[in-house]
Amino acid sequence: MDTQLIQINGKRHGIGILKFWAWQSRAFSSGANFIVMGWLMFYATDTLGMPVVLVGTLLMVSRIVDAFFNLPIGLLIDRTQTKLGKARPYELAIIGMWFFTWMLFSMPGGASLLVQSIWFVAFYTLSSSICGALLNSGGMAYVIRVFPTDEQRVRLASLGGFVGMVFGICISIFFPVLVNNFATSPDRWSQIVLIL
Question: Domains in the chain, ordered, with CATH?
Fold first, then answer.
């Protein structure tokens, strides 16, 4: 990690090991959430018995809602003035993202198709369209303020991308094994997502 030290006007500016790994925790969590969401269609159709066309339509509705939330969220972040800065408070959206993802995978198994559809759209929208947009929209503003030089940002992106890729590969291997061995009911899916 010594390669992360950068000379600027004769002064050493580095990312530092602790700062690097703390920063990557967000990428790890977002990547794991992305992988879990990749199994959503399988969960909804095979475990809950929802029709494939309905699930696809509900995902499309959520993405349309997402389009309407992005501009107001960008304006909100742009106008935020706190002691923590412009974008740092929105890093807490990762907690909401995981909570709503867990709720999405905690859908009651015996619920009617209408209840399942409402549950699906509500929690998918809250997880990806609201919390995901807050987290991702504030990300660049946060990076620029925490890492003031281009060299730091490039090193963070390249090293972080590699570490994130390795972590994503591990989760991509680990999660399907959990699903295959334990995801026999909606309750089990909820437990697996909660553990992750």
Answer: 30-195 (1.20.1250)
